[in-house]
Amino acid sequence: MELLGRNKTSGLTLLEVLVAVAILAIAMVAILKANVQNLDALTKSRERTTASLLAASKLAEIEAAGVANWGESQGDFGEDYPEFTWQVETTSTGVEGLEQIAVIVQRSGGVAGREVRIEEFMLVE
Q: Could you tell me the residue range of the domain that residue 110 belongs to?
């Protein structure tokens, strides 16, 4: 007795197996691409967070030492964060004794426009 029109030696044909493998391959490529994008986003987020913390730290250092001791300067963070550089810009506000201080931190050789910039107004003594 035949079951639903199939003979006794029913099974998967080569074409069915190839279609299943092709579908699986397409799904795997999509999953791998999503993982690569997630890793890239994680790396950018970690870089930005580190740069933000370093900029805040440098701004606190400037505030503690006094704005007059810094002026326009730049440097790096030494052995702890050798891949990051900092730059300080001061701008006169037109109000006597008040300066606008900008600390810019970026990754050495990084992409332009991906730096972190923190600005603050400080009194110059």
A: 14-123
Q: How many CB atoms lie within 10 A of CB 111?
A: 9
Residue matched to tokens 């009194």: 123
Residue 115 backbone dihedrals phi, psi, to 5 degrees = -90, 165
Residue 120's DSSP bridge partners are 101
What gap in Å lies between CA 124 and CA 110, rounded to an integer?
Answer: 32
* Whether the Cβ atoms of residue 84 and residue 76 lie closer than 8 Å to each other: yes
Residues 6+ apart with CB under 8 A from 115: 51, 104, 105, 106
10 Å Cβ neighbour count for 91?
A: 11
User: Based on the structure, what is the number of domains in the chain?
Assistant: 1
At 82-112, the pLDDT tens digits run 999 999 998 888 888 888 999 999 987 766 6
Q: Report if residue 1 sits inside a domain.
A: no
The rounded distance, in Å, linking the Cα atoms of 91 and 3 is: 87
